[in-house]
Write a structure and sequence with these properties.
The protein is α/β, with parallel strands linked by helices and 196 residues long. Helices cover 32% and strands 22% of the residues. It contains 7 helices and 7 strands. Strands 3-2-1-4-5-7-6 form a 7-stranded mixed sheet, sandwiched between helices. Strand 4, helix 6 and strand 5 form a beta-alpha-beta unit. The longest helix has 13 residues. It is globular, with a radius of gyration of 16 Å.
């Protein structure tokens, strides 16, 4: 029986093959999956001319999907603290719409203007498990905040499940946003800002 997660994407971003090979070469295993990628590509397409923020570039797998959904006037700021990983993204994603920053997420978040992003994809600790309030303040009214890895993962350290539950509870109680939890990919949670 076919399920909603049974997709065979024939239109994946071309750069994924090279990004995956380079990730394997440096033993980077925390890669975004294609289901998450297809979701963010679809979501980003709803923000023509949008200003987007990705926290946790990794080697650029989700970045490639984000770029695939963006129109010609949208821009993406992507932040990663690991120089080896961001260099993979820099090598395989030459795109004038993309700005890659190698720095700690917290440091970058603190420099950004409030309500300045149409979509934030937080795929690392800064912006998700720390600096959450500062990150949510960056979302414009009508903008999206998206996180993944909300369903149990085999690489979770002891005590991480409790952190996930606390994060979900905090987000559900934030009255500035409407939220939905999705049993899709690694478990997504999507928020839309409805008030200042």
């Amino acid at each position: 029986m076919t399920t909603l997660n049974d997709f065979s994407y024939t239109d994946k971003p071309v750069a994924l093959t090279a990004i995956d090979a380079a990730s394997t070469a440096v033993d980077f295993q925390q890669r975004s999956d294609d289901l998450t990628g297809a979701f963010v590509r679809t979501l980003v397409a709803s923000k023509p001319g949008g200003r987007l923020l990705e926290l946790g570039t990794g080697a650029g797998r989700a970045t490639a999907w984000l770029l695939a959904g963006m129109d010609a006037t949208a821009t993406l700021l992507s932040v990663e603290s690991d120089e080896t990983l961001i260099e993979i993204a820099r090598t395989h994603l030459p795109d004038s719409r993309l700005t890659l920053v190698c720095d700690r997420g917290e440091t970058v978040i603190d420099t950004l203007a409030r309500e300045s992003f149409d979509l934030i994809f937080a795929d690392t600790w800064p912006g998700k498990y720390n600096h959450l309030a500062e990150t949510l303040a960056l979302v414009k009214p009508g903008g999206f905040y998206l996180i993944d890895d909300m369903l149990p993962q085999p690489n979770w350290p002891d005590g991480h499940a409790e952190k996930v539950l606390a994060l979900v509870k905090t987000l559900e109680q934030d009255t500035r946003f409407h939220a939905v939890k999705l049993s899709w990919a690694t478990g997504l949670m999507l928020l839309t800002r409805v008030s200042a």
